[in-house]
Amino acid sequence: MAVDLLLGLQWGDEGKGKIVDVLTSQYDIIARFQGGPNAGHTLEFDGQKHVLHTIPSGIFHDNSINLVGNGVVIDPVIFKKELDNLAKHNIDYKSKLLISRKAHLILPTHRLLDAASEAAKGKAKIGSTLKGIGPTYMDKTGRNGLRVGDLELEDWKDRYRALADKHEKMIAFYDVDVQYDLKDLEKEFCKAVETLKELTFIDSEEYLQQSIKSGKTILAEGAQGSLLDIDFGTYPFVTSSNTTAAGACTGLGVAPRQIGEAFGIFKAYTTRVGSGPFPTELFDEVGETMGRVGNEFGATTGRKRRCGWLDLVALKYAVQVNGITQLIMMKGDVLSGFEILKVCTAYKYKGEEITHLPYNIEPENVEPIYTEVKGWKEDLTKLTDPSDLPKEFNDYVDFLEKELEVPIKMVSVGPDRKQTINR
Ligand code: GDP
Ligand code: IMO
Ligand code: MG
Please, are residues 74 and 196 in contact by the beta-carbon 8 Å criterion? Predict the structure, then answer.
């Protein structure tokens, strides 16, 4: 038995939450392997919308186990809010939610450090979600972090104190004005830790290996997207984890040879939230329309997402580094009504035409070269049968498939679980 992966191929927000929810009925276990509450995964069904940040997107299904893996960073305060929301919808999460003891904890001071670091950067800020992701992963690799398993130790509060005190000194080191009342934040944190401790903590790599042995099916849910990967993304405007396929191995404790399908998910256009280069970004009416029709606002921060045409140079790169075996195209419905669609198929780079992603993709280094494709007029949101998809839509998908050399097996035509068409 293999572990399948579902990965975002752009700058996040591709629609991972929706598709994990759609695929969950085929899996016994859904496992998040990296990131934390910087993620916002949206699911819609039965006329209701849910946003998950740390909890895997299989949680609404009765028969699946949802595992938060060792590669994830958990903020107990945000986690508690997610649990409270599930309880409101009568989801019996205790029986189907497992947490890795090796997952690292986001402390209130990690969030403050994130804010101080961003403020100190001024114009060069990353545009972080300010959830404390960077500082928590820094403590993890710096071997200072506090882990979920530590909460089972008698002296976890002493360990917490030592780390938080160190953070306070670091905050003071940044020459910026960060206002905070740590007492209040710590009260909230300790209360949330007690809620977290009501859940089941496990040695998740052992659990997953036993599950694989006993023939259970596992889907690993990625957060963010390949272009936000700490190694392969548009550094330094990235997140602090490996969002690509290899991250699933280190974030769950499964071996490369245990990976099966790698589902790659992308929008029919491109969006990005936060700072950083974006070669196909649009600053005109077309980009505005994409944002309006696609309702492109961040699920975690509410920030307006930047919009632009599909960038096949970047997408091919993501397909390559992840070893994608099947593609899923999202939000085709948003492009209905555009006379002409543009797809970036190459970059002009230092006077030359190139088709690979270079080291520098800032506007002064690359200029996108577009291929134009005819658009479609039809509203796709009511369609369920692939044979009803308009010719121009199929031509667009066929063109992308040919360029990417991977089949597009599913297209999404609306936010609801049911607005999904298999090809
Ligand atoms: P994730 O972070 O990858 O899970 O994606 P987000 O939830 O942050 O953002 C995707 C947004 O697009 C959400 O608001 C979804 O409800 C919505 N969405 C997903 N698929 C489609 C689609 O095919 N069409 C439209 N119009 N919206 C979609
Ligand atoms: P999902 O899982 C889109 C972006 C932030 C910022 C950069 C670093 O919903 O696709 P961080 O908080 O990690 O320090 O922010 O990464 N970012 C995301 N953008 N979707 C996400 O997650 C993101 N998580 C982080 O906007 O530019
Ligand atoms: Mg999102």
Answer: yes
Q: Who contacts 359 (Cβ-Cβ below 8 Å, separation ≥6)?
A: none
381 contacts 419 by C-beta, under 8 angstroms: yes
Positions marked catalytic: 13, 41
7 pLDDT band, cuts 50/70/90, is very high
Residues around ion ligand 3, judged by CB within 5 A, are: 13, 40, 299
Helix (H) or strand (E) holding 321: helix 312-322
Inform me whether the pLDDT recorded for 175 exceeds 90: no
Ligand nearest to the CA of 266: 1
| 253: alpha, beta or left? (left if phi > 0; alpha if psi -120 to 50) | left
> 8 CB under 6 A from ligand 1?
yes
In this prediction, residues 62-80 reach a mean pLDDT of: 98
Token pair belonging to 386: 């692939």
How far, in Å, CA of 142 to CA of 168, rounded? 17
3-class secondary structure, 326: strand
CA 399, CA 332: separation in Å to the nearest integer?
14
Closest to 28 in 3D by CA, of 67, 82, 70: 67
Please name the residue that has the structure tokens 């796709």.
Answer: 380
DSSP state of 227: G
Q: What is the pLDDT of residues 35-45, one digit of tens each?
A: 999 999 999 99
Alpha-carbon gap, residue 185 to 310, rounded angstroms: 42
For ligand 2, whether the C-beta of 7 sits within 6 Å is no
pTM for this predicted structure: 0.97
Among left, alpha and beta (phi > 0; psi -120 to 50; other), residue 189 is: alpha
Cα angle 29, 56, 417; round to 5: 95
**Residue 377: is its pLDDT beyond 80?**
yes
Kindly give the distance from the C-alpha atom of residue 321 to the centroid of ligand 3, in angstroms, as a whole number.
21
What's the token pair of residue 419?
């607005």
Spatial separation of the C-alpha atoms in residues 83 and 54, rounded to whole Å? 10
* Burial grade of 328 (CB within 10 A; 0-12, 13-18, 19 or more): buried
Q: Does the C-beta of 221 come closer than 6 Å to ligand 1? A: no
- Nearest-CA residue for ligand 2 atom 6 is 128
